[in-house]
Amino acid sequence: MIIAERKLFEQIWESIKDRKSVLILGCGTCVSVCQSGGEKEVGLLASELRMKSKLEGKEIKIEEATIERQCDKEFFDSIKDKAKEYDAILSMACGAGVQFSAEVLEPVVVIPALNTRFIGVTMDEGIWAERCRACGNCVLRDYGGICPITICAKSLVNGPCGGSKNGKCEASQEKDCAWVLIYNRLKKQNRLDELRRWAPLKDYTTQTHPGRYVNEAYRKPELEAKNVK
Amino acid sequence: MSNSKLKQAFDSGKFVVTAEAGPLKGTEVDEMAEIAGVLKGKVDAVNVTDQQSSVMRLGSMVICHLLKDWGLEPIFQLTCRDRNRIALQSDLLSAWVLGVENCVALTGDLPSSGDHPQAKPVYDLDSVQLLQVIRNLNEGHDMAGNELKGKPDFFAGAVVNPGADTEAAYELQLMKLEKKIAAGARFFQTQAIFNPDTFARFMKRVEQYKIPVLAGVIPLKSAGMARFMNKNVAGINVPEPMISRMTKAEDKTKAGIELCAELIKSLKGMCQGVHIMAIGWEKKVPDILDVAGLT
After folding, report:
1. DSSP-assigned beta bridge partners for residue B156
2. What is the structure's pLDDT at B278?
3. Do A167 and B173 count as a contact with CB atoms less than 8 A apart?
4. Long-range pairs for A145-149: beta carbons < 8 A, 24 or more residues apart
5. Quick check: is A221 in a domain?
6. pLDDT in tens, B189-233
7. How confident is the model at residue B1 (pLDDT cuts 50, 70, 90)?
8. Do the Cβ atoms of A156 and B178 come within 8 Å?
9. Which residues of chain A have pLDDT under 50?
């Protein structure tokens, strides 16, 4: 899922303090699971902002809503009309959700409340870790299911740098050296010989931005729709 | 065609000595000229670091060029940290035009360890791929297969860390060394060695490749420096007796030079040369070589 964390309260306050009415819009999917932008977090941020505006002597109408997903048009139906009544929407979705909200709700101003961090997994209660950099060319088969692009701080694909110490990364003693993990996993799988293979050059054409993907089954109708004059 | 004096030195079978020198921050090159003056005739080549420890400085290429002018044999270090494949290839061609005939391909420390920690880490290529690129350029074409109008003939080297501390890291260093040789590395320089036994164990594994190895050495300046490196630098393990000799020494400089010279003597029979990373003590390199009996 997409992992995001809330911006500093002061930054959020700065971005909405001159507004008259703000709708805090939560997202019920990834950021809800990683406890940064779901219904509960919307409620918490709303209370904090209400208190702050009172303390600052400002009259800002702060209201709450959470939709299932801010990255799918259909879920905006319930708040589309309501959104127009506000001076700004404070979106608690990931960057994709914030942008899509601004697109769907145009011309309403949409302001982000979160910083999107990475695609990751839940390690423990309240702890998430990155597991994919969305490089567009998955190499996990070759590395025992451990991604050197993501887990190695230098994204090295042909073996480690010289900075591995106690099985940890030179960047931080809190981070495992991806290559030590890969070696140990492949050893258990009796596949160490596969590490001798040369990794192909990275191809950044799969990372041309903005990314776009059309499911094969929908390609024809999409082309036809484009050709309709 | 290559006239690499470094290659000639290896070919001659002599015990090769290279010294590392790091450019300073800014346009000041007088200090480097002084170092060059001291090292001239004493070492086979001077290896110029590329934004060492990710600290922004004057570039390796221009210092290599100046060294050449000053009559020394330069080795152009080039890391994958700051340049994508277009810039790396272009810099290699530029260095060749400036008269640089040797290079060493490295991964490069992370920007987070330097003085511009917010910088984007590039690592478009890794050191194995960079060596392949150097070979491609030597053969007259770029990575895309386009023909070059005029080609270099670099004598390319690589690095290896014989002190990797886990089975995984150690075996992977050797696997990567094998890939680097296949990719075109013609010599290796190692992370700093302090324990001849560690180096002997490593050389036993590497002998089969019949490739020249320069054992890396760092002269100790103090016991504190040794402890700092033991704690913070991957692959460095200064033995306790060495540290206590530094602690007890009245003349630390003399002791540091002696220890380094003794180490070189004990490594000499195992490898093809030594790579002295003096880290600020570049002008003391001739003293170290004197005591080591290499003059």
Report:
1. B103
2. 96
3. no
4. A145/A185, A146/A178, A146/A181, A146/A182, A146/A185, A147/A178, A148/A178, A148/A179, A148/A182, A149/A202
5. no
6. 999 999 999 999 999 999 999 999 999 999 999 999 999 999 989
7. low
8. no
9. none
Residues of chain B found within 8 Å of residue A184, distances taken between Cβ atoms: 168
Q: Region B180-192: what's the mean pLDDT?
A: 97
Q: How far apart are CA A198 and CA A181, in angstroms?
A: 19
Strands A114-124 and A127-132, sheet pairing: antiparallel
Q: Which one, of A187, A33, A129, lies nearest residue B175 by Cα?
A: A187
Q: Which residues of chain B have a Cβ shorter than 8 Å from any chain A Cβ?
A: 80-81, 85, 107-110, 112-113, 121, 123-129, 143, 159-161, 164-169, 171-173, 175-176, 178-179, 182-183, 191, 234-235
The CATH number given to whatever domain includes residue A81 is: 3.40.50
Which candidate from B110, B168, B176 shows the least CB-CB separation from A158? Answer: B176
Same domain, A104 and A157: no
The reply to whether A27 and A87 lie within a common domain is yes
Q: Which two tokens stand for residue B285?
A: 């390199």
**So what's the pLDDT on residue A225?**
75
Residue A100 is assigned to a structural domain of this protein = yes
Residue ending a domain, choose from A118, A145, A171: A118
A146 chain-B contacts, CB cut-off 8 A = none
Contacts of A194 in chain B (CB under 8 A): none
Structural domain includes residue A107 = yes
Q: What tens digit of pLDDT does each residue of B39-89 get?
A: 999 999 999 999 999 999 999 999 999 999 999 999 999 999 999 999 999
Q: Domain B5-291 maps to which CATH number in 1.10.260.30, 3.30.450.40, 3.40.50.920, 3.20.20.220?
A: 3.20.20.220
pLDDT attached to residue A228:
61
Q: Taking CA atoms, what residue in B is nearest to A180?
A: B168
To which H or E segment does residue A12 belong? helix A9-16
How close does chain A come to B117, measured CA to CA in Å? 11
Determine whether the interchain pair A167/B166 forms a contact, defined as Cβ–Cβ distance below 8 Å. yes
Count of the separate structural domains present in chain A: 2
Neighbours of B218 (CB within 10 A): 25
Domain boundaries, chain B: 5-291
Q: Which residues contact B244 (CB under 8 A, 6 or more apart)?
A: B223
Question: Are A77 and A143 within one domain?
Answer: no
Q: Is residue A212 part of a domain?
A: no
**Are A6 and A114 part of one and the same domain?**
yes
Q: What is the residue range of A69's domain?
A: 2-118
